[in-house]
Amino acid sequence: MANLEDVPTPDLxxxxxxxxxxxxxPDKRLILIGPPGSGKGTQSPIIKDEYCLCHLATGxxxxxAVAAKTPLGIKAKEAMDKGELVSDDLVVGIIDEAMKxxxxxxxxxxxxxxxxxxxxxxxxxxxAKQGSKIDKFAPPKVSGIDDVSGEPLIQRKDDTAEVLKxxxxxxxxxxxxxxxxxxxxxxxxxxxxxxxPKKSPPxxxxxxxxxxxxxxxx
Length: 218
Fold this sequence. Notes:
Order of helices and strands: HEHEHHHEHEHEHE
Radius of gyration: 18 Å
Largest sheet: 6 strands, parallel
Strand content: 5-15%
CATH superfamily: P-loop containing nucleotide triphosphate hydrolases
């Protein structure tokens, strides 16, 4: 544990102000769902800071679990070394571990999971055991076009046409049914991706002031 006398005063004040701000924030549990290039990576840090949440990206969590050689990380590495996909149960277990960290005390933003209805069901089962539920956002009805304005969504510079086409096909085939799954539970709200990122928090406050678990559709 760091000696507070060694921490610069400006840093202490910044942390104190952050904790005071976060103390008044409601718990939030968000899942960001959207096609490639819809702005999940752009919106996540803004929403994270607004609600004092932890950002859980499944790829990062898997790599961290493998590097830390946790029991689940060891099992995941064994699967990857064999060229196999990491099972849904293992991924959910790693997410479960990550959600118990102090940084996730106010809630979380889950990015990159669930991608299928089966994964969504397993996630719901895990959250039910925790006594938690989800607040949610989702993707545009027409790929690459915002539902509200009709304007094109931004494509990442590192996406080739072939890669993007493959990712969009996988999204429509596997992940769009996840939106239907959560829509039936009344948990999906839409965040128009054409809006400037900094305008997201006020819209979120209007969309789910009382909800704890929300699926955010981008």
